[in-house]
Specification:
Layout (H helix, E strand, L loop, with lengths): L6 H4 L1 H16 L4 H15 L2 H14 L3 H6 L11 H14 L1 H4 L3 H35 L7
Helix pairs in contact: 2-8, 3-4, 3-6, 3-8, 6-8
Length: 146
C-alpha cells in the first residue's frame, strides 16, 4: 500500500485538534487497559492496520496479555474480559458502526449502570476520537511501522 498524503504535514491543525482530544483522554481516570482494548477493537472494526499495530504495541507495553489482544476480535466468545470491558466493547462496536442500528437502549442503559454518566461520557469521547484517527489513517493510507 502506498501512502497518499500526510495530513499532519499538509494541514497540521487537524493533528493538533486530535492531539488535544488525546490529551483530554489521557487526563480521564479510565483504566489504561480498557482504553487500549477500545482503541484496538474500533480499529479492528474499521480495518485500520496502522492503528491496530500501534495500539496493540502500546497495550503490550502496558502489560496487556497476548491472549486478550488475540481474542479481542471475538471477545464475546471468550472468558477473558470483565463485565465492564464487555459492555465497553459492545458500546465501542455500536458507536463505531453507528450507521447500522445506532446505539441500542440496552447497551446504553447497561453502560450507564456500570460506568455512570461521567465515565460513560468519557468512553463515548474516546470511541469517537479513535474512530476519527482510524478514518484519517485509512483515507490517507498511513502505513503501519514494524
Amino acid at each position: 500500500m502506498k501512502a497518499r498524503m500526510s495530513i499532519k504535514n499538509v494541514e497540521s491543525r487537524i493533528y493538533e485538534a486530535l492531539h488535544v482530544s488525546e490529551k483530554q483522554i489521557d487526563a480521564f481516570n479510565l483504566n489504561p487497559f480498557l482504553k487500549g482494548l477500545i482503541k484496538i477493537r474500533a480499529s479492528q472494526i474499521n480495518g485500520c492496520g496502522y492503528c491496530i499495530n500501534m495500539h496493540a504495541k502500546e497495550a503490550r507495553t502496558l502489560g496487556e496479555s497476548e491472549q486478550r489482544i488475540y481474542a479481542l476480535s471475538a471477545w464475546w466468545e471468550t472468558p477473558f474480559f470483565t463485565a465492564e470491558e464487555q459492555i465497553a466493547l459492545k458500546l465501542t462496536e455500536e458507536v463505531t458502526q453507528i450507521s447500522h442500528h445506532g446505539i441500542s437502549d440496552e447497551v446504553y442503559e447497561k453502560a450507564l449502570g456500570i460506568f455512570g454518566q461521567h465515565t460513560l461520557a468519557q468512553l463515548i469521547f474516546l470511541i469517537i476520537t479513535i474512530n476519527s484517527w482510524n478514518r484519517i489513517a485509512i483515507t490517507t493510507h498511513m502505513v503501519a511501522e514494524n
